[in-house]
Specification:
Blueprint: H1 4-17, H2 20-27, H3 31-45, E1 50-52, E2 57-59, H4 61-85, E3 93-99, H5 101-118, E4 122-128, E5 142-146, E6 155-162, E7 164-168, H6 170-176, E8 190-193, E9 201-206, E10 209-214, E11 220-221, H7 224-232, E12 237-241, H8 242-250, E13 255-256, E14 267-273, H9 281-293
Parallel strand pairs: 3-4, 3-5, 8-11, 8-12
Antiparallel strand pairs: 1-2, 5-14, 6-14, 7-12, 7-13, 9-10
Helix pairs in contact: 1-2, 1-4, 2-3
């Protein structure tokens, strides 16, 4: 291992595997040779990258920076090589995708068979979780994130704008009546998401501006799919993203409410990748596929 990229790859592998022995087995060298290689990197840089203990390896602050930059550089090298050969080969390789539970079930899950059928040389590992992960640290190629991204070094491509809808099942409305004005919701069982205070305050247009109505009910959850099922079952009124309720509305299992006064609060949904990785053919293929899917399949 004489090149800088080989050294970076070896160092990153040590961190990912958590030991010299495991990483050495992957790389086909001895643990002692790998340990000496890391020591050579430290000597050349003049800093300590790792603190070695009998039980584990701990990155120093300089080590954290070095491994992050190494991953970016290795991803850029992979992207450059892939771009050069892209014209002669179809996208291939393993794709790690992070996505929230609701988006996975409602949007990505149904779309994946078509994607995998179109790109048979790509394999997909789907990481479904509502926590926001570190793409570089967890070696994730792509994340799908809802809401405003804020300041970020990630490369983002907008898939679509989503909005929130208030709805209930025909059975619930037949039993309890339809709310005609926002204040009527105070007499209804409203199903709410946890996590943010504004989820319990539904916004409406009024002659005096935006009014947020504090609603309540017998069920709260941090899972939108659970609230969808509860609303379809006739438990109460829900306010959920349009991509969550689209199928239920189309099938008549839910009915939209108060559309003339409700503030739908649009929010974007993005595909995000680490710098450099967005240029790899498999990532580009997935991104373009999803953009097309969310714009009518074009």
């Amino acid at each position: 291992m004489n090149s800088a990229s080989d050294e970076m790859n070896a160092f990153v592998r040590v961190i990912e595997r958590g030991s010299f022995a495991a990483a050495a087995g992957d790389l086909g060298i001895t643990p002692s040779a790998l340990s000496k290689l890391v020591t050579r990197i430290e000597d050349r840089l003049g800093v300590r990258l790792l603190t070695r203990t009998t039980r584990r390896l701990v990155l120093t602050a300089e080590g954290e920076l070095f491994v992050a930059r190494s991953r970016e550089i290795l991803a850029s090298i992979e992207a450059a090589e892939a771009e050069v050969t892209a014209a002669s080969r179809a996208p291939r390789g393993h794709l790690r995708i992070s996505v929230g539970t609701t988006y996975a079930k409602q949007i990505l899950g149904p779309a994946l068979p078509l994607f995998l059928g179109r790109y048979p040389d790509i394999t997909v590992e789907l990481l479904v979780s509502d926590r926001q992960i570190d793409l570089v640290a967890e070696q994730v190629d792509i994340a799908i994130r809802s809401g405003w991204l804020g300041d970020s070094t990630l490369v983002a491509r907008k898939l679509h704008d989503a909005r929130r809808l208030i709805c209930a099942s025909p059975h619930y409305l037949k039993t309890y009546g339809s709310p005609r004005v926002p204040a009527d919701l105070l007499q209804h069982n409203c199903l709410t998401l946890t996590g943010f205070a504004q989820f319990n305050q539904w916004p409406f247009h009024t002659s005096e501006g935006i009014n947020r109505l504090a609603i309540s009910g017998t069920l709260t959850s941090d899972n939108a799919d659970l609230l969808l099922d509860a609303a379809v079952a006739g438990l109460g009124v829900a306010r959920l993203a349009d991509f969550v309720v689209a199928r239920a509305l189309q099938e008549g299992a839910l009915v939209p409410l108060l559309e003339d006064t409700h503030l739908s609060e649009p929010f974007p949904v993005h595909v995000v990748t680490a710098p450099g990785r967005h240029r790899t053919p498999r990532v580009k293929a997935f991104t373009e596929f999803m953009v097309a899917q969310m714009n009518g399949g074009r």
